[in-house]
From TrEMBL:
GO terms for molecular function: aldehyde-lyase activity; metal ion binding. InterPro entries: Aldolase_class_II_sugar_metab (IPR050197), Aldolase_II/adducin_N (IPR001303), Aldolase_II/adducin_N_sf (IPR036409). This is Class II aldolase/adducin family protein. It comes from Megamonas funiformis. One of its GO terms (biological process) is pentose catabolic process. Residues 7-189 form the Class II aldolase/adducin N-terminal domain. Gene3D superfamilies: Class II aldolase/adducin N-terminal domain. One of its GO terms (cellular component) is cytosol. It comes from the Bacteria.
Amino acid sequence: MLEELKKQVVKYALQADRSGLCKHRSGNFSVRDPKTGYVCITPTGMDREEMTYHDVVVIDLDANVIEAETAQRRPTSESLMHLEVYKQHPDINAVAHTHSKYATAFAVLKKPLPAVVYEILGLGCKEGIVPVADFGRPGTPELAINTVKALEKSDVALMQAHGVIAIDKDLKEALLKASYVEELAEIYYHTLVINNGNEPPYVSDSELQKWEYPKEIKLLDLLTRTSSK
């Protein structure tokens, strides 16, 4: 089981690099095994193009290294942040931390991303914005605590002067959320440029809460599907 989770970590870490969400060994990714509670996490300072699942490190929630197949590999220095997420969110089994350009630019300004498009609805933003976690030095308990606090309001957050974090039940979805944050940040940036720095209109939180799947679409029920086989 852990071998498969390690392979997932490599797959999506590499995907993040190749899509431009991370560069130059930045960012980190992890998956938790719901059975053991162990966390498979990217090693520190390693080129993703050279990384194999043997390089992925396994740690427990107390930051003890459980397994390091390649002996010289150490878990990412930001492991405490990942572990704090898992401690505070028992339903979450994946964390993606990226350094995408547009989102990080707003993180530097400590500026939350507003609901300029409806797609923010899929990011679990309870207040209609992507929040910004207060600054914490990378690798410190302070960073972990500040980040988890921001994630009380959303499944995604900017990290002041740092980057983006996204959480979900699996790493594919967590990375997808991080990708949406970057897209939202880029759209927001361009609207500010086009609008001479003035804030664009937002989709209100009350409007976001009204969304539902269209009743007009007639779906097949289970009985119809079964009888048609």
